[in-house]
Amino acid sequence: MADPYQTLGVARGASEADIKKAYRKLAKELHPDRNKDNPKASERFSTVTNAYDLLTDKDKRARFDRGEIDGDGNPTSPFGAGYAGGGGGGFAGGRARPGGQNAGFSSQGFEFGGDNADMGDIFEGLFGGRQSRGGGFASGFGRSAPPQKGASITYRLAVPFVDAATLAPQRVTLADGKTIDLKLPAGVETGTQMRLAGKGEQGPGGPGDATVSIEVQGHRFFTRDGDDVRLDLPITLREAVLGAPVRAPTVDGAVMLTIPGGTSSGRTLRLKGKGFHKKGGGRGDQLVTLQIDIPADNKALTDFVETWEAPGNPRGPMGV
Q1: Minimal CA–CA distance to 200: which of 179, 174, 235, 219?
Q2: pLDDT digit string (tens) for 52-66?
Q3: pLDDT tens digits, one per residue of 86-95
Q4: Which CATH class, in words, describes the domain spanning 1-78?
Q5: Which terminus of the chain is more solvent-facing, meaning fewer CB atoms within 10 Å of its CB: N or C?
């Protein structure tokens, strides 16, 4: 069982932001789609995700820090397989010895001295029970732990780029065959974790939770820049020289974009509110970089350029 702090490479007192940052870095490095020829990376990706799930669950993290559960979320035992040399496991068949200087634990089992050993103190340390005023054990001794909930389940969800930008609902098929429509959060990105309460495996204490790990897919012409979307848009030489309205794709659909006359390649125009939804509200923009498309074999254009004298030196400001 791995220590979740060591797995993520963070200190025990790490903040939630530090834990999330460490997980995102590891998730990007170890994601199965980037390590198709490395099965160990896939195994470590699962281990890293489980560690993140435990440390971002405040209750589980506190219980792990107190030593009540291990790195896999399973309850720990104060005795392990057995205690005090009694071959059958559990308590050995001890006997009470008359008081004396050497009274205490014996290799044959428990031996308590009448004057030097306080059974109430011993069991209070082991079980958290208290000794009653009459000298007997309180009712807390031997109390069984609450039923354990079922195991957690982690799902990997690939979200199309445009769906992530527009927060389109995603349909997820669970392990039991049922489907749910998942509402993406603002600011969603690769590595975002979404918790589904009660959608894990069934256990004696009820179902566990499920976690959906998001991976935003790439796009053939859009790229992401923080909350903004970038696009290289080809335009003709005529559109660049004379200016013209042209259709440009956005994550919300095509819009009309006005190209100013005399535009050079590399000029960037901004479409407000056509980017990703921000965590704090509002949306980023779409940044459209214009690229003049020059035809390779156009005799009329070639003849024109050969007789055209371009004024000035565009490389003059560079000193060449």
Answers
A1: 174
A2: 988 999 989 999 898
A3: 344 443 333 3
A4: mainly alpha
A5: C
